[in-house]
Write a structure and sequence with these properties.
Layout lengths: L9 H16 L10 H8 L1 E5 L6 H12 L3 E3 H11 L2 H11 L6 H12 L8 E4 L5 H12 L5 E7 L2 H9 L1 E3 L6 E3 L26 H24 L3 E5 L4 H13 L2
Helix pairs in contact: 1-4, 1-6, 3-10, 4-5, 7-9
The structure holds adenosine-5'-diphosphate.
C-alpha cells in the first residue's frame, strides 16, 4: 500500500522491515531439545540491563541458545535499519553516531512490532531496552497483556572497567559476535572464530562517543534501574567475571521459583 506521496505507509513499512530483521537476527532451531518446553516456560521475558560494554549481547546469545527464545537487541534492530538505509535508519543514525539515545517515537514502534512477531509468543530476551524510565513504563504496559513471567536482570560491572571493555570491543559484522582485544580476544587476531569474517570496531566505540554513552547511561538508564529496584524486581548479577560464570548466575536466577 502506497501513500499519496508514493511512500510506503509507516505501518506497513515497519511490519515488513521488522519481519525481515526478525528472520535475520533470530537463531532458529529445528526442534526443541528435550525438556526445553519446561525451560521456556521458566524463562519467559528476560530483561537484561547493564551499562554499555557489560556483555549484554554475549549473555543474550547464550540465553537464546539455552532457552530457545529470540534475543531482541534494540541496538541491532537500529543498526540494521541504518545499514539498509531505511527512513527510520537515516533518522536514527545521527543519534547513534553521537552516542545519544534514539527518540522513543522512532524506537518504540520498532520494538513493539518485533515483540509482536510469532517467535516471541513464549518469551524473549530484551537487550538494550528499556534505557529510560519512560521506556521502562512503556514496557510495563506492553507486557501487561502478555502474561509471561518476567525477570529483570542487571549485569553489574564497575565503571572503571567499562572504558577498556568498550575501547577493546571488536564485533563480527556477519554473526554479531563480540570479542575484546584485552579480555576475550579471538583465536586469530582480527578474525571471527565462527565464520572467519574480519572483525570491526563499531563507529560508536570511539573514545569521545564512549564517554557520552556512559554519561547517558548514568543520567537516563540508572533511573530506570532504580525504578525496578524500588519495586523489588531487580535481580543483580556480577558481570565482572568470565562470561560462562555470568551465564551460570543468570541461569540460577531464572531457575529460582
Ligand atoms: P551499547 O549498549 O553498547 O551502547 P547498543 O547496541 O545497545 O550498544 O546501542 C547502540 C546505540 O543504539 C545506542 O547508543 C543508542 O543510540 C541506540 N539505542 C539502542 N537501544 C536504544 C533504546 N532502547 N532507546 C534509545 N536508543 C537506543
Amino acid at each position: 500500500m502506497k501513500t499519496e506521496s508514493g511512500k510506503l505507509s509507516r505501518r506497513r513499512f515497519l511490519k515488513e522491515s521488522t519481519a525481515a530483521v526478525a528472520a535475520a537476527l533470530t537463531i532458529r532451531r529445528p526442534g526443541l531439545a528435550r525438556g526445553a518446553e519446561k525451560e521456556l516456560s521458566r524463562a519467559g521475558v528476560v530483561v537484561l540491563l547493564g551499562p554499555p560494554g557489560a556483555g549484554k549481547s554475549e549473555q543474550s546469545r547464550r540465553l537464546t541458545e539455552r532457552y530457545s527464545i529470540p534475543a531482541i537487541s534494540t541496538g541491532d534492530l537500529l543498526r540494521d535499519h541504518v545499514r539498509r538505509g531505511t527512513p527510520l535508519g537515516l533518522q536514527a543514525d545521527s543519534y547513534m553516531r553521537a552516542g545519544k539515545l534514539v527518540p522513543d517515537s522512532l524506537m518504540n514502534p520498532i520494538l513493539e512490532d518485533r515483540m509482536s512477531q510469532p517467535d516471541c509468543e513464549r518469551g524473549f530476551i530484551l537487550d538494550g531496552y528499556p534505557r529510560t524510565l519512560a521506556q521502562a513504563e512503556s514496557l510495563g504496559a506492553l507486557l501487561k497483556n502478555k502474561s509471561l513471567p518476567t525477570h529483570v536482570i542487571l549485569l553489574d560491572v564497575p565503571t572503571e572497567r567499562l572504558f577498556k571493555l568498550l575501547t577493546g570491543r571488536r564485533v563480527c559484522p556477519r554473526c554479531n559476535r563480540s570479542y575484546n582485544i584485552y579480555f576475550q580476544p579471538p583465536k586469530k587476531e582480527g578474525v571471527c572464530d565462527v565464520d572467519n569474517a574480519s572483525l570491526v570496531q563499531r563507529s560508536d566505540d570511539k573514545e569521545e562517543v564512549i564517554r557520552r554513552r556512559l554519561d547517558t547511561y548514568q543520567k537516563e538508564t540508572v533511573p530506570a534501574i532504580e525504578y525496578y529496584a524500588s519495586q523489588g524486581r531487580l535481580e543483580r548479577v556480577n558481570g565482572d567475571q568470565p562470561p560462562e560464570k555470568v551465564a551460570a548466575e543468570i541461569e540460577a536466577k531464572l531457575a529460582a521459583p
